[in-house]
């Protein structure tokens, strides 16, 4: 506790604002537990950058923690691009304080002699990724906490390729940040280096999104869409992109169209949570819509609901949407003709069905750690290869490589193209998905997230993962465990034969069990939230579409058995 108290007292110097010092003094006098949580560690970069609760302290998002990160980034950019006229573009989402924090970040960069393009109002994360290359910038920053609760904010850094920072840049930038004291931050803005941007970049992004996501699907005049931005930034892009692609029957949920960092109409602005789409689904039922689309606050994730075999609106999960989007893009490429250098990509905790489908098309399949920055890195690392598309189970997808991060804008358009074409052909999005199960195997997944907040929660998560590794299960739902993949040691071991293989992916705190029947269980801590996540994947043959409901129920039973065996039910 002495170390935490000393860290807190270091914020009582004249460098810090009077109200900050007053708040810390109040915490020291009245709330030891809250003081601990705010100062027991420094905010760090995770899989999606730096993200946390807003407030005063080293373990909070505020002008000083973001200022220090920006000062470190400035120092790094000046070392790497010595003598160049350095440019950085900044965007921000709808969250409380995002606009003022974005301005602070811009001021620190400008104080260090760096040119800044700052969006004049909120913009989507995919547009920021696009803008980095469009404007010829050396880096980009977006102020967002993605789908986290209202009290969060964050900061994602992008490199010259438009992708999030990856090794070695991330480690080198972190070293620069860690070498600084807060007093090293230069807050003395040079306003002449800050240029506001908006419509010119918007126009270029919309044009690129339509070019990559529009396949001139038939039936658009009859296709009905309900769209909700969940109080986020996608309202600035998706309605316009759909309109330009020819969709006229788009109903916007007006109660959720106004950007609002408090997200007043939802428990969580996360399209992974079914409750987030409830208002839109209700409207879809009222007007007989074909599809519902909802996006998270910075518009990199999308949730989709479509009509199932019984004609009811059903949410499809991230794995299912990814499968159908990738299938559609592969089919488009097949019609053009494969050149032999194409690849699709996903992450190690996403559905194995992606690999089965890639094999069926004879296309290379690449897999990466969780986090879209790793998929972006693939595109950079293999410039001779052609990236068709890829995604991850957490409702993110990327169409082509003009954006180098999850892109809910273009993915929304692609999903509508698939569904509109299917309906015109006498099928549906849902029926086409079932046909994929017939063609490539019926894979069904389940995600369990367990939240453990604060300093004690971090220790609990650490212990849970340690127990999962040190007490390995020998069978899952009656099938023997065959492989244990330990991404901390980069070793995959066949526990039945003793064979070992090296894992050619950066080390990460992930453990995966795979059984003889292909069932997979993965465990990892979240990189952006105080959660531990367990991913379960099961599979079965689906001989014909008519058997779908029966086989689906069998897989549900198997998943429930696994949850019981792991005490996760």
TrEMBL record:
Residues 43-180, 206-305, 317-437 form the Alpha-D-phosphohexomutase alpha/beta/alpha domain. Its EC number is 5.4.2.-. It is an enzyme of class 5 (isomerase). Keywords: Isomerase, Magnesium, Metal-binding, Phosphoprotein. Gene3D superfamilies: Alpha-D-Glucose-1,6-Bisphosphate, subunit A, domain 3 (3.40.120.10), Alpha-D-phosphohexomutase, C-terminal domain (3.30.310.50). One of its GO terms (molecular function) is isomerase activity. Its cofactor is Mg(2+). The keyword Magnesium applies. It comes from the Bacteria. It holds the Pfam family PGM_PMM_III. Belongs to the phosphohexose mutase family. This is Phospho-sugar mutase.
């Amino acid at each position: 506790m002495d170390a935490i108290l000393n860290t807190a007292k270091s914020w009582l110097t004249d460098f810090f604002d009077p109200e900050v010092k007053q708040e810390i003094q109040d915490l020291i006098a009245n709330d030891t537990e809250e003081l601990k949580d705010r100062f027991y560690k420094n905010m760090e970069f995770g899989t999606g950058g730096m993200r946390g609760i807003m407030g005063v302290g080293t373990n909070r998002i505020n002008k000083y923690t973001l200022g220090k990160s920006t000062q470190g980034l400035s120092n790094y950019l000046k070392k790497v691009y010595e003598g160049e006229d350095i440019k950085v573009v900044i965007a921000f989402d709808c969250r409380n304080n995002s606009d003022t924090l974005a301005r602070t970040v811009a001021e620190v960069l400008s104080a260090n002699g760096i040119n800044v393009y700052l969006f004049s109002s909120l913009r989507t994360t995919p547009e920021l990724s696009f803008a980095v290359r469009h404007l010829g910038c050396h880096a980009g920053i977006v102020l967002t906490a993605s789908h986290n609760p209202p009290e969060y904010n964050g900061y994602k850094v992008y490199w010259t390729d438009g992708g999030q920072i990856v090794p070695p840049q991330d480690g080198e930038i972190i070293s620069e940040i860690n070498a600084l004291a807060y007093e090293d931050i230069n807050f003395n803005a040079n306003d002449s280096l800050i240029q506001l941007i908006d419509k010119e970049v918007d126009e270029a992004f919309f044009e690129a999104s339509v070019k990559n996501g529009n396949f001139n699907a038939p039936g658009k005049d009859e296709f009905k869409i309900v769209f909700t931005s969940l109080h986020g930034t996608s309202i600035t892009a998706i309605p316009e992109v759909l309109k330009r692609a020819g969709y006229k029957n788009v109903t916007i949920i007006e109660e959720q169209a106004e950007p609002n960092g408090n997200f007043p109409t939802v428990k969580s602005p996360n399209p992974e949570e079914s409750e987030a789409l409830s208002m839109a689904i209700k409207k879809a039922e009222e007007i007989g819509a074909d599809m519902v689309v909802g996006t998270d606050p910075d518009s990199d994730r999308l949730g989709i609901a479509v009509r199932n075999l019984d004609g009811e609106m059903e949410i499809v999960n991230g794995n299912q949407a990814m499968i159908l989007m990738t299938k559609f893009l592969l089919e488009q490429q097949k019609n053009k003709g494969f050149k032999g250098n194409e690849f699709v990509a996903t992450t190690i905790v996403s559905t194995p069905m992606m690999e089965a489908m890639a094999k069926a098309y004879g296309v290379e399949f690449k897999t990466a750690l969780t986090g879209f920055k790793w998929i972006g890195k693939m595109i950079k690392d293999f410039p001779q290869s052609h990236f068709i598309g890829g995604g991850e189970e957490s409702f993110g997808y990327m169409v082509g490589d003009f954006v180098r991060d999850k892109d809910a804008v273009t993915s929304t358009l692609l999903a509508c193209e698939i569904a509109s074409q299917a309906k015109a052909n006498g099928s549906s999005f849902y029926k086409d998905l079932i046909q994929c199960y017939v063609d490539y195997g019926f894979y069904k997944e389940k995600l369990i997230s367990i939240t453990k907040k604060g300093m004690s929660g971090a220790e609990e998560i650490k212990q849970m993962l340690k127990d999962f590794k040190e007490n390995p299960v020998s069978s899952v739902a009656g099938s023997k465990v065959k492989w244990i993949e330990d991404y901390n040691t980069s070793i995959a071991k066949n526990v039945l034969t003793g064979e070992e293989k090296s894992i050619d992916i950066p080390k990460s705190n992930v453990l995966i069990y795979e059984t003889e029947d292909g069932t997979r269980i993965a465990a990892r801590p979240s990189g952006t939230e105080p959660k531990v996540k367990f991913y379960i994947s099961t599979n079965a043959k689906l001989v014909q579409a008519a058997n779908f409901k029966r086989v689906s129920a069998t897989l549900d039973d198997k998943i429930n058995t696994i949850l019981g065996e792991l005490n996760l039910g």
